[in-house]
Amino acid sequence: MIHFAFTSKYLVGVSIIDDEHKRLFEIIKEANDVMHNDFSMINLTRLVICLVSLWNTTKFILQMKRSIWRASTMRDLKTRRGTLYVCGEN
Predict the structure, then answer these.
(1) Separation between Cα atoms, residue 82 and residue 78, nearest integer Å
(2) Alpha carbon separation from 27 to 3, 38, 42, 67 (Å, rounded)
């Protein structure tokens, strides 16, 4: 059986994203556990639920990262514009 463990090497330093990354590992572990149990309709349903959760959590993380990236890019652009403007007047 494969062991999935969240370790500090996966931390990005943004708590909401780090928490969601931890959640991804929990979902992957659960899906892996389900796949290694007896194959039944109940386990198949649990596996589908895990995969849907994995999909939704991944989408959320990517949207969050995109928002953070856009905010930091806009902040950098404003800083650069301000610096260029000040430099241009001197």
Answers:
(1) 6
(2) 12, 19, 17, 24
Q: Roughly what angle, to the nearest 10 degrees, separates helices 41-89 and 15-35?
A: 160
Decide: helix, strand or coil at residue 89: helix
Would you give the distance in Å from CA 39 to the centre of its chain? 29
What length is written for the chain?
90
User: Residues 76, 80, 83, CA angle at the centre, nearest 5°?
Assistant: 140
Report the amino acid identity of residue 63: Q
Each residue's pLDDT expressed in tens, for the chain with a length of 90 residues: 566 788 999 898 888 889 988 999 998 888 888 888 877 778 888 889 999 999 999 998 889 888 888 887 776 666 655 554 444 443
